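DM from R.C. (forwarded with permission)

"hey, sorry to bug you on a friday — could you get me a structure for this? deadline for the figure draft is monday and I only need the backbone to look sensible"
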Amino acid sequence: ADKVLAAYTPLGFTLKQRYDIGEWTTLKLQK
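My reply, with the result:
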């Protein structure tokens, strides 16, 4: 998830949005 957060950081996402994206990606990768 850290890599995802780092990738979205420059795009100006809020911390909440980056967190949600990271969590969603983690869940998807676990499946």
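R.C.: lifesaver. Residues 22 and 28 are 10 Å apart (CA to CA).
me: no worries. The chain has one domain: 1-31.
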